[in-house]
Design goal:
By secondary structure, this protein is α/β, with parallel strands linked by helices. The chain has one domain. The chain is 47% helix and 17% strand. It has 12 helices and 9 strands. Strands 1-9-8-2-5-3-4 form a 7-stranded mixed β-sheet, sandwiched between helices. Strands 6-7 form a two-stranded antiparallel ribbon. The longest helix is centred in the first third of the chain and has 22 residues. The radius of gyration is 19 Å and the shape is globular.
Length: 317
């Protein structure tokens, strides 16, 4: 097997979705019509199956917990079979919450907004003119709760840049749930046509949102940063996009704390730009700042890290 083929197999997007669409539909039907209490025994069996058969995912979560424990000095975070299984259960709970979000069952009053920089006011202001901005999220917590952010913005258009191949089954299921509010834009590479489209959306006052903690398979734009004490590859995409479009960048994280979601909004870059010949170094600095903030957020909700694949470069060696 060539080095390129091996890299493809190791990449998160190359992993086949193990969830069966029919089973997902059945789970969604039970959750919607019978409630989570009746679904709970079935959900435990489903998660147990994926836990027992997902050796690579178990190893990846164990590695994450080991890294987090060593970096933070908290021995209570070290991986055990019980803690790793709890990570799988947290992901299952997140999937059910996604269904609630997309069918409108998760309401505004159930979400707490932490916005010390007043970004919501800026979001609202774009309804009356003004340029949009970029939100960079993460797969820590529930990224789909940005639906609630759209409600907080009172219908300000929110364009979510995604890799639809990896989320095809989930997008299909959520589409059947009737979600209409967010625009999903497939991003394979930052070509001229896409950049023009995104620029026009920003000028119309629309906002963009994308995750910053996964590297696209067919996009060589990546940067190695220190994350939880070890080198890891992070995407250049969000930071390159911000610099080329000249739009402010804000961080967004949606964590479930004490059974209630918290949307954390933080200002990150006001005027992203780089000097001639310094683009790569500048982007690397931004990516490192993002990785440092992500590490701090991991301590707030350690079991809500939902990257079930080898994350650190040492794992892929």
């Amino acid at each position: 097997m060539s080095e390129a083929q091996l890299a493809t197999r190791r990449h998160w997007s190359a992993q086949r979705e193990r969830g069966n669409l029919l089973l997902m539909r059945f789970t969604a039907f039970v959750a919607r019509n019978c409630g989570r209490r009746l679904l709970s025994p079935l959900l435990h069996l489903i998660v147990l199956y994926f836990f027992l058969t997902g050796r690579r995912a178990r190893h990846s979560i164990s590695e994450y917990l080991e890294r987090l424990a060593a970096w933070s000095g908290r021995s209570d975070l070290r991986p055990t079979p019980r803690r790793v299984f709890a990570q799988f259960m947290a992901f299952a709970d997140c999937l059910l919450d996604r269904l609630d979000v997309w069918r409108g069952a998760l309401r505004l009053e159930q979400v707490r907004l932490l916005d010390s920089d007043g970004l919501r006011a800026q979001l609202l202001a774009t309804r009356h003119g003004g340029r949009g901005q970029l939100l960079v999220g993460t797969h820590l917590g529930n990224l789909d709760v940005c639906r609630a952010l759209a409600e907080l913005g009172e219908q300000v258009p929110l364009n979510v840049l995604v890799h639809t191949h990896h989320v095809a089954h989930l997008n299909r299921l959520l589409g059947e749930a009737g979600e209409q509010r967010m625009r999903l834009i497939q991003v394979s590479e930052l070509d001229a046509a896409l950049m023009l489209d995104l620029s026009q959306r920003l000028e119309r006052g629309e906002w963009l949102a994308m995750a910053g903690d996964r590297v696209p398979l067919h996009d060589g734009r990546r940067v190695t940063v220190d994350f939880l004490g070890r080198p890891a590859a992070f995407a250049q995409g969000p930071w390159l996009l911000a610099g080329l479009l000249g739009c402010p960048v804000n961080l967004m994280c949606c964590l479930k704390i004490d059974s209630r979601y918290e949307i954390r909004l933080e200002r990150f870059l006001d005027t992203p730009a780089w000097q001639r010949g310094q683009r790569d170094a500048t982007i690397a600095g931004w990516a490192q700042r993002y990785a440092d903030r992500l590490a701090q957020w991991c301590l707030l909700a350690p079991q809500q890290w939902f990257n079930f694949y080898p994350y650190w470069e040492s794992t892929d060696a």
